[in-house]
Amino acid sequence: MIPSLRGLLILDPEPSSQKGGGRKHNKNKLHYIPNDSLRVLHAYALRKIEEYIFEMPSATGWIKGRGSITKDHILSHTNGQGFFHEYWYITDIKDAFRSVNLQKMSWVLCNLFPYYDFTNWPDMKEYLKKYFFAPGGSGLAEGYSTSPKLFNIYAEKMIDQHFRELCTQYNISYTRFGDDLIFTSDTIIGKKKKKALLSILRVAEFTPNDNKTHSFNLNKLKEGKIINGVGIRNTSTQAEIFLPRSKRKKLEMLLYLFWYDEAKLNPRKIEGLMGWFNQVTDSSKKGKRTLNTSEEKILKYYNRASFGLKELIREMREETT
After folding, report:
1. d(CA 231, CA 225)
2. CB atoms within 10 A of CB 242
3. N or C terminus: which one in the chain shows less Cβ crowding within 10 Å?
4. Which residue has the higher pLDDT, 164 or 269?
């Protein structure tokens, strides 16, 4: 079978809002689905990437063993006193995968794998264009298992190392979780610093997403702030991560419904949310924090339903094998 793909137009489940608080709307995204032969080729490429992968200290997502949004991404922004930095500047790369330049990606990989060990192919550019990029070479293909890894490599060379150099000068902490960028400091990140940071993105031909670019003083927010689906705040004694009310209520409702009518719910979805729940509630650097009343209720519901969830997941696995 010849490696090939097909495109699938899907509705982005995450609504985006217009700048200035305008009407919310959804946008369509074109995802590409590889056939079995292309999946085999991608699996081989991923193994090679893992063998030759280099240090990427700023990347906190899409990396084996470093995928915790709390420990690796959020808690990297604490100071020596155990509190979150006071000043936060957050942005997002618009259409990140589609913004990856084929020529530059080829150059990055040729320098990383000088003897073509990665591809065993005489022309890196044509190889990438044919099997890893969207048709016509218009960016990394959405939906491919290789795209997140290749994007990390590209971002490290094109922006991350430059951000680290500049942030060292400005005494700013920097991490990147996929296409989400966080800059924090205990001193104000003013217009001059922001302009210098954004210029690195633009030189790399990335476009910051204006709708998701904002700054704030965490210490002035009594209720804290939601970052990448995780709540953060400084208490009187330490930095604290908490469950946003909306997600907490959603998980509580799913567990409650599962307890009374388990057949109508996908157990994998619940297990995935519980993994996120455990990650957040166990994420304090000083050890596991005390659960509040709502969190204890979620844990109680889960303990009641856990046997049924595991049995359903086991049955689903048996049906697919």
Report:
1. 6
2. 20
3. C
4. 164
